[in-house]
Design a protein that fits this description.
There is one protein chain. The strands form three sheets. Strands 5-6-7-8-9-10-11 form a seven-stranded parallel beta sheet. Strands 1-2-3 form a three-stranded antiparallel beta sheet. The longest helix has 15 residues. The protein has eleven helices and 13 strands. By secondary structure, the protein is an alpha/beta fold.
């Protein structure tokens, strides 16, 4: 006998977290929590990491869909059925996570790799949040002192010249071989000056820029990717593109240098692997990243990421954003994310 519950939790940021879309103080997540009364009361969890204002499934009917799944599972006792979740990517990932956890040999071990055994650490970038110049400068200085090899800076919220001065500060001290720099505009640039800004940014030996203009402007983005001296990575552009043929058409049309996979936004591991397969066929690079999930979701994304190529610096979170996150075996040190099996999972009120 199994019993499924859905529990909503507000994750509270340690500091106001700014992007070009605004400042976040908290973020909701919904958790599928399954108890198996036959299997010694085993608890399995899947996180539905909705991002308000960004997720494709941030729309009326979200919680109704969760209740529909809840009722179906509890009335049938069956997890393996078609819940029709292609239009609900974060729920689709939550169910994918829940099933994997339920059938796993070991709690919260979704993919048995050297990562979960402690023999491999995933290289990740250090994230610089938006804010005033002093706030961003202090973050950059801290990351450099901690020994990070790749830094990602969110831009588009303060004056462009001040953002350029931050890049100058880094490049005066470190070459591109010493520190890889990525920037993320979150669609902040206007079409009429985007290319000019890309040319200015390219003077600072950047690895790439994520989503320079708002998603949905496909022809404009294709032109930017063709003319830009700086590599462009699609991020928000992938949201809501769920069918394989549509994914292929999008990448064939825009021809970006990179795509960025956020399983909570793209529909989970299987859907993200489909994006990767298409990108590889078109000689487009990629990396994986998290999307402000709790450590439950971050763990699931990190374990999947460890199954991918090892010569990629990914964008996974550090699990240190929230005051009420769950303790986990995930540990970050100098730009690497590790899974330390001797550390136990904590408890933050998710139970049956």
């Amino acid at each position: 006998m199994i019993e499924l519950k859905v529990i909503k939790k507000e994750l509270i940021f340690k500091f106001p977290s700014g992007t070009s879309r605004g400042v976040m103080l908290k973020k909701p997540s919904w958790f599928f929590v399954l108890k198996d009364f036959v299997n010694k009361g085993k608890i399995s969890i899947g996180e539905c990491g909705l991002l308000p204002g960004l997720s494709f499934d941030d729309k009326p009917g979200y919680e109704d869909k969760l209740k529909e799944i809840l009722n179906l599972v509890n009335s049938t006792g069956n997890l393996n059925q078609d819940f029709d979740l292609i239009k609900f990517p974060s729920i689709r990932f939550g169910m994918e996570m829940l099933k994997k956890d339920y059938f796993a040999r070991e709690e919260k071990i979704f993919f048995e790799t050297e990562f979960t055994k402690g023999g491999y650490s995933i290289p990740i970038n250090g994230l610089i949040w938006m804010g005033d110049k002093r706030f961003m400068f202090d973050q950059i200085k801290s990351k450099i002192e901690e020994g990070w090899g790749c830094i990602k800076i969110k831009i588009g919220a303060i004056d462009f010249d001040e953002e350029i001065s931050l890049l100058k500060y880094i490049r005066k001290q470190f070459t591109k071989e010493e520190i890889e720099l990525r920037v993320d505009a979150n669609g902040a640039f206007a079409l009429n000056d985007a290319l000019e800004k890309l040319k200015i940014l390219s003077d600072y030996d950047l690895h790439s820029i994520e989503q320079p203009v708002k998603a949905g402007q496909i022809n404009a983005m294709a032109q930017l990717c063709e003319l830009s001296p700086l590599a462009i990575a699609l991020d928000e552009e992938l949201i809501g593109v769920n069918e394989r043929n549509d994914k292929k058409l999008l990448l064939e049309t825009i021809k970006p240098q990179y795509i960025i996979l956020k399983p909570s936004l793209t529909g989970g591991w299987e859907a993200s692997n489909e994006w990767i397969d298409i990108a590889r066929s078109l000689d487009i690079g990629y990396w994986a990243t998290s999307a402000l999930e709790s450590n439950i979701g971050l763990n699931a994304i990190a374990q999947w990421t460890a199954t991918l190529e090892r010569d990629i610096i990914h964008g996974l979170g550090t699990g240190k954003l929230y005051t009420n996150n769950i303790a986990s075996p995930l540990v970050v040190n100098k730009g690497f994310l590790s899974y330390e099996k001797h550390k136990e999972w904590g408890y933050f009120g998710v139970t049956v």
